[in-house]
Amino acid sequence: VTAEKAGFDHFMLKEIYDQPKAYRDTMGSRISPDGLGVTLNELKITAEAIRNINRVHIVACGTAYHAGMVGKYVIEKLARIPVETDVASEYRYRSPIITKDTLVIVVSQSGETADTLAALREAKRCGAHVLAITNVVGSSVAREADDVITTWAGLEIAVASTKGYTSQLIAFYLLGLHLAQTLGTQTSDEIKETVKALKELPAQVEEILAQAEAIKVVAEEMAKHDNLFFIGRGLDYAVAMEGSLKLKEISYIHSEAYAAGELKHGTLALIEDGVPVIALATQHELLEKTVSNIKEVKARGANVLGIAVEGELELQKSVDSTFVIPKTLDVLSPALAVIPLQLLSYYASLARGNDVDKPRNLAKSVTVE
Ligand code: G6P
Q1: Which is the closest atom of ligand 1 to the Cα of 60?
Q2: Which of 74, 90, 322, 323 has a CA positioned 20 to 30 A from the CA of residue 210?
Q3: At a CB cut-off of 8 Å and minimum separation 6, what does 56 contact?
Q4: Where are the alpha helices (DSSP H) in 184-322?
């Protein structure tokens, strides 16, 4: 078992460090050698069928659902198709409007989650084209979907998903680019720029991992608290959701993720002296707004850790401490910003003496509804 962990203390830590490879393997030959675009040769859906898609539904559970929240932004931004996201256990029961021109994307690391599988079957019954993003070749979800994009993260053992999630993000970027190429919603220069930035991500993840020690110090302090908040806007909100789930799963610290602008409509009442707030602020267009939300919590005594892109000095002045991630395109930042949050949860769980890889009450794959 020690050998399987490749010298790491826990599977989760090993899997966090597997991520640069998981990114590279998932991109693999799907990025054209000239770097001009992507080729998803495995997809059966025709260009004509893509042009007919009038809505996309992304359906998943847990961490995979949070990858889907990022996927919504990515597809809407790159391909300009309206996207809805649903947790799989809700989807079937709200009689969603599904037609043959609906693309339903199910996301599942294991490919065996019962709720997700049931949603897939309902979507197929209604005639939708179903595309699965999964990490397990030959899984139930992979077998039953019309199309599959396999994430090449390798076996994920820790209950808390890390490389499973980030490789799903890479799959969404590839899919978003593929749709954009087919629909002509991005110029060839824009596609080239995104592909170039995508290829830089693995090395940038390595840069973040090299600073794990700094996150450990913060995590040990946070582990003393029983309540904390994650805030962010846009894609940062999606990442905040995942950061909060990760922390709850393995540290058992109560946390909530809030769209930063929504805080003042109720939850701000919970902010008092010393409450830790993790503010994700990687989206350049929203930066000013996020800074004003940071000031709202600071004024109530919160202790704010900012997750910021390098060079944003104005933001750094408004928080108590900052963790800096390398520069990338706004749309790609979730693939970097989530890494410090994974490490934060890992070290907070460790500081609390929990069983990191096997948290109480949870299972790696939930095959009952
Ligand atoms: C379980 C796991 C979560 C996971 C979710 C969905 O609840 O504990 O970590 O995100 O299932 O799993 P899937 O395999 O469908 O991605």
Answers
A1: 15
A2: 74
A3: 72, 75, 81, 82, 83, 84, 102, 103, 104, 105
A4: 188-209, 212-222, 235-251, 287-299, 313-318
Question: How deeply is 123 buried, as exposed, middle or buried, from its count of CB atoms within 10 A (0-12, 13-18, 19+)?
Answer: buried
19-27 helix and 188-209 helix, angle to the nearest 10 degrees: 160
CA 64 to chain centre: 8
Residues 94/119, Cβ–Cβ less than 8 Å: no
The pLDDT value recorded for residue 98 is 97
Q: 67 alpha carbon to ligand 1 midpoint, in Å?
A: 11
Nearest ligand 1 atom, CA 64: 16
Phi, psi for residue 74 in degrees, rounded to 5: -65, -50
Sign of the torsion angle spanned by Cα atoms 145, 140, 68, 321: negative
Closest residue by CA, ligand 1 atom 11: 365
Q: What is the pLDDT of residues 312-367, one digit of tens each?
A: 888 889 999 999 999 999 999 999 999 999 999 999 999 999 999 999 999 999 99
> Which residue type does 274 have?
G
d(CA 106, CA 148): 10
- Contact between residue 319 and residue 218 where contact means Cβ atoms under 8 Å apart: no
* CB-neighbour burial class of residue 185 (10 A; exposed 0-12, middle 13-18, buried 19+): middle
Q: How far is Cα 231 from Cα 302, in angstroms, rounded to an integer?
A: 12
Taking only the tens place, the pLDDT of each residue in 16-41 is 999 999 999 999 999 998 989 999 99
Output the residue whose Cα is nearest ligand 1's atom 5: 62
pLDDT of 3 reads: 60
What value of ipTM does the predicted structure carry?
Answer: 0.98
- Between CA 23 and CA 209 the distance in angstroms is 14
- Cα dist. 346→11, 125, 167, 318 in Å? 11, 41, 19, 27
Distance 258 CA to ligand 1 centre (A): 22
Query: Ligand 1 mean position to 363 CA, how many Å?
Result: 8
| Cα 146 from Cα 131, distance rounded (Å) | 6
